[in-house]
Amino acid sequence: MKIMVVCGNGLGSSFIMEMNVKKALTEMGKTADVDHTDLASAKTEQADIFIGAADIVGQLNDGIRKIVTLENMMSIPEIKSKLEPLLG
Questions:
Q1: Are 71 and 42 in contact (CB under 8 A)?
Q2: DSSP sequence for 38-78
């Protein structure tokens, strides 16, 4: 399972989200390969789930990719609630 965290520039906010996704996965007892990148690079990346702020990650929605949009990238409970259905 690969989760790609996406932000506009692939720097600060996606790194913070990556750390929060990893923390959420640990709390859920799940494991996944989690990485972060910028929007342009994400368009060519392969991942099982793409996660990020709605205005950014929504641009990756091609009807095939699994997209998770976050209202609050700092919210571990929100990350957990949105990943849980996808991780089984």
A1: no
A2: EHHHHTT---SEEEEEHHHHGGG--SSS-EEEES-TT-HHH
Q: Copy the structure tokens of residue 10.
A: 């692939």
Annotated catalytic residues are 7
Region 10-14: mean pLDDT is 79
Angle at 67 between CA 63 and CA 71, to 5 degrees: 135
Q: What sign has the CA pseudo-torsion 23, 28, 31, 33?
A: negative
Residues 6+ apart with CB under 8 A from 13: 7, 53, 73
Entry field: residues in the chain? 88
- The pTM (predicted TM-score) of the whole model is 0.92
